Amino acid sequence: MMKPVKQLFTSRRQDFQHALPPYGILYFDLLDAELRSRPPQPLDQDFGMVISDIRKKREEHSLTWNDLYAFDLLVTRLLPPERLSREVWSLRSRYRDVAGLREYEAYLSSRPPDLAG
Q: Backbone dihedral region of 61: left (phi > 0), alpha (psi from -120 to 50 degrees) or beta?
């Protein structure tokens, strides 16, 4: 588990190194509130370290899109399965609103690739 967490935080694309605009910071604050509102549970040491580093960047006003993406992935990994399925449902609903009905129906009719093959 250690290597994937560190890769989330260290694999960076150049175009994601820009500082977050106000709406990105707001989204980070919402994710952080989600994480803080969860019942206390022991975290993997690497998760805790990455979360602390990203929160420190927030305090220093130096968050980047990479940091936000890594934080979003970490929060998602910590969601219980029943909550994760609700999040997927919500994302699909928002995608339909943004993409339009025709694109959404094409998405629904598509099949994910067979990873076993």
A: left
| Cα 66 versus chain centre, distance | 10
Q: Quick one: DSSP state of residue 40?
A: P
- What predicted TM-score, i.e. pTM, was given to this entire model? 0.67
Nearest to 90 by CA among 71, 76, 74, 109: 76
22-50 pLDDT, tens digit per residue, is: 999 999 999 999 889 888 777 778 888 99
Among 14, 10, 77, 94, CA closest to 50? 10
> What are the residue boundaries of the structural domains of the chain, listed by start?
2-78, 80-117
Task: Give the CA distances from residue 58 to residues 3, 29, 65, 90, 101, in Å, rounded to whole numbers and listed in that order.
Answer: 24, 9, 12, 26, 37
Distance (Å, whole) CA 22 – CA 25: 5
3-class DSSP state of 64: strand
Provide the token pair at 13: 């694309």
